[in-house]
Amino acid sequence: MTDVLETAAQILSRSKALAILTGAGISAESGVPTFRGKDGYWQNYRTEELATPQAFQRNPTLVWEWYSMRRNLLASVRPNPAHYAIAEMERLGGNLTLITQNVDGLHQLAGSKRVLEIHGNIWRIKCVRCNRKEERRESFEELPPRCVCGGLLRPDVVWFGEMLPKDVLSESYRAVESCDVMLVVGTSGVVQPAASFPYMAKERGARVIEVNMERTAISSIADVTLRGKAGEVVPALLEMWKQSLS
Ligand code: OAD
Fold first, then answer.
1. Closest by CA position to 100, among listed 117, 86, 121, 114
2. Which of 20, 107, 111, 210 could staple 87 via S-S, CB 3.0–4.6 A?
3. Are residues 61 and 68 in contact, defined by beta-carbon separation less than 8 angstroms?
């Protein structure tokens, strides 16, 4: 492991433009379930009943019950060493863009300042009628909650079949196309368009470093694969990177 860590740290220390892509695996050690693992959400729930605009139209209360359950869980979890290490990477300076598929806000809580949340944020809600958006952290007494205009409120997250937020997506593409290294942490790499980011970066000559407990759809193009828990591997990588800078 030390050898591959060293190789990865060397690649990072030479990088002039680093893009980081994270997925549910980075929050697993904080106690947040992933989607596709053994205990993942999609083992027990059907996406089409919960994470689609049709599901919300059909049964907004059911969809909100699921999001309320997730919000309640997230309210008590903390970032883990992987989130903190990534926040420190940003503070180390240089050109870093953090793209996350997570909606949990844990990167920001760990101190990351610029986070491109391509799937939205579970703490932000929007009105389906007047489109007003606001951050609401409390749990709602009545489900589904309603806007002052009378319209239904929904979580401001991206559901299957929906467009990703335009500005966030174009900023992400800019980073993916211009990075010389992409660090991919804790994603299965099967949900588009994020799944294609490492491929696009690689095609343009970037090196790809993957941190994951398992082999994924990205592993075959990774220049360096770091197998292990994000909460252990990412801080170790940061330490080695810092050593190679001094
Ligand atoms: P997945 O649940 O598909 O994948 C989680 C990945 O994290 C897997 O590859 C695991 O092997 C890995 N993993 C688990 N624990 C880990 C740990 N402690 N350290 C390192 N890796 C670990 O989650 P995503 O790839 O994020 O979208 O899923 C992408 C999207 O699918 C989500 O954003 C969500 C979901 O449906 C929407 O809801 C739109």
1. 117
2. 111
3. no
- Residue 37 burial (C-beta neighbours within 10 Å; 0-12, 13-18, 19+): middle
* Structure confidence by residue, pLDDT tens digits, 74-88: 999 999 999 999 999
Q: Structure pTM?
A: 0.97
Q: Which tokens belong to 155?
A: 């979580």
The C-alpha R_g of the chain, in whole angstroms, comes to 18
Cα angle: 191, vertex 99, 28; to 5 degrees:
70
Separate counts of helices (H) and strands (E) for the chain: 11, 9
Task: Report how far ligand 1's centroid is from the alpha carbon of 219 (Å).
Answer: 14
Residue 126: what residue type? Answer: K
Longest dimension (CA), the chain: 59
Cβ pair 198, 182 in contact under 8 A: yes
- The residue among 130, 7, 157 whose CA lies nearest residue 71 is 157
227 contacts 212 by C-beta, under 8 angstroms: yes
Spatial contact of 102 and 22, defined as CB atoms under 8 Å apart: yes
Q: Mutation test of ligand 1: which of 212, 219, 234 has the most ligand atoms closer than 8 Å to its C-beta?
A: 212
Q: Where in the sequence numbering do the catalytic residues fall? A: 119
Smallest Cα–Cα separation from 226: which of 99, 15, 82? 82
Q: What residues does 124 pair with on adjacent strands?
A: 135
For residue 188, the CA-to-ligand 1 centroid distance in Å is 5
